[in-house]
C-alpha cells in the first residue's frame, strides 16, 4: 500500500497497527516511494565470534594474483 507523507503523518498510529499485523506500507512523496514501514523483528540470536574457527581454509596462494588477471581488471591489453 502506498500512502503520501501527509496521510502517513495524519494516520501514523493506524498505519502502525496495520504494520504490526504484517502489512507493508510504502510512504511516498509526489507519488514516488521514499520509505517502507515493515514489522520490526529482533535478531534471532546474537552472533558469537569464532564459531567458524577451524572450518574455513584459505588457499596458500590466496595473496598471489596473476598479472594477467590484474591486467584484465585494469583494462590493459
Short description:
By secondary structure, the protein is an alpha+beta fold. It contains three helices and three strands; from the N terminus they run βααββα.
Q: Fraction of residues in helices?
A: 25-40%
Quick one: overall form? elongated
Are there runs of 5+ residues with pLDDT below 50, and where?
none
The assigned structural class equals alpha+beta
Mean pLDDT: 92
In angstroms, what separates the terminal alpha carbons? 52 Å
Say how many strands there are: 3
Rg on CA atoms, Å: 24 Å
Total of helices: 3
Strand % is 15-25%
Please give a structural write-up.
The chain has helices at residues 5-10, 12-20, 67-74; strands at 2-4, 25-29, 32-37. It has 77 residues and is α+β, with helices and mostly antiparallel strands. The protein has a domain at 2-37. It has a three-stranded mixed sheet. Strand 2 (25-29) and strand 3 (32-37) form a beta hairpin. The N and C termini lie far apart (52 Å). The model has no long low-confidence stretch (mean pLDDT 92).
